[in-house]
Specification:
Elements: E1 2-6, E2 9-11, E3 33-35, H1 37-51, E4 57-64, H2 68-78, E5 82-87, H3 94-108, E6 112-116, H4 127-135, E7 138-148, E8 152-159, E9 162-169, E10 172-176, H5 188-194, E11 199-202, H6 235-244
Parallel strand pairs: 1-4, 1-6, 4-5, 5-11, 6-10, 7-10
Antiparallel strand pairs: 2-3, 7-8, 8-9
Helix pairs in contact: 2-5, 3-4
Bound molecules: adenosine monophosphate (AMP).
Length: 249
């Protein structure tokens, strides 16, 4: 079984995102970019399935500017066999990403597609679900455990009340949650090896997909600043404040 893994080049999780001064988006000038953390988990899971003999080939894909080649090289340094970049400089919203991935699925015929549960830049949490809709495939979102069997996959999902286990017919889509695994560190020799792995570059037009944005971003702003805290002398004062000021008891 071939596995496709979607890896997005996103703002590094250690960087504090700041809105542009005119509120038209997040300021990405001179900001460190890395692989979306949930996508590292997705790559790791695909590699573990390959190591367990459940997958034959791992293909990483990314959609975005030429710099996404770096993200694909990281996925290949982790162990992915090859990479596909759908190169475009414009904004690509989740529906367009899902359509592009569907076009690659039609071409590559994988048995499973693993994505992150969400990209930490737009926090959309939409792409995997939309892809499942477009393909008519089953999906296990927020995966905390994945077990591939003959023609099906069991996915344990993190839901509010605990863990829900579902059984999906393959081919299927899985979106990775935080506790699915701990991604491996990339070793230097593997970075060198990854440079020699195949990386194909295609355009959205090659795949016949119109990526014109459908949604208009109205405004990006910082959350309201929190008021400072106060120290109380004793429990009686705390209770009084909770009652008269915070009005929560
Ligand atoms: P989102 O729906 O934007 O929160 O993204 C969910 C997941 O879809 C991400 O974790 C990635 O696995 C995948 N994805 C979204 N955008 C891209 C992109 N431009 N390139 C590759 N994968 C993407």
């Amino acid at each position: 079984m071939k596995i496709l893994v979607a890896v997005k080049r996103a703002i590094d999780y250690n960087v504090k995102a700041r809105p542009k001064s005119d509120g038209t988006g997040v300021d990405l000038a001179n900001v460190k970019m890395s692989m979306n953390p949930f996508d590292e988990i997705a790559v790791e899971e695909a590699l573990r399935l390959q190591e367990a003999g459940k997958a034959t080939e791992i293909v990483a894909l990314s959609i975005g500017p030429a710099a996404c080649q770096e993200t694909l090289r990281t996925a290949m340094a982790m162990g992915a066999d090859r990479g596909i970049l759908v190169q475009t400089d414009g904004e690509v919203q989740p529906l367009a990403v899902a359509k592009l991935i569907k076009a690659l699925v039609d071409k590559e015929q994988p048995g499973m597609v693993i994505l992150g549960k969400q990209a930490i830049d737009d926090d959309s949490n939409q792409t995997g679900q939309m892809l499942a809709g477009l393909l008519g495939w089953s999906i296990g979102t927020f995966a905390a455990r994945v077990e591939v069997g003959e023609g099906h996959v069991k996915v344990a999902r993190e839901v509010d009340g605990g863990i829900q286990t579902i059984d999906l017919k393959l081919p299927a889509i899985v979106t990775a949650d935080l506790r699915l695994n701990e991604p491996r560190y990339v070793k230097l020799p593997n970075i060198m090896k990854a440079k020699k792995k195949p990386l194909d570059i295609v355009s959205p037009a090659d795949l016949g997909v119109d990526i014109t944005p459908r949604l208009k971003l109205v405004k990006v702003s910082e959350p309201a600043a929190r008021a400072g805290g106060v120290k109380v002398a004793d429990v009686a004062e705390l209770v009084a404040k909770l009652r008269s000021e915070a009005k929560v008891i």
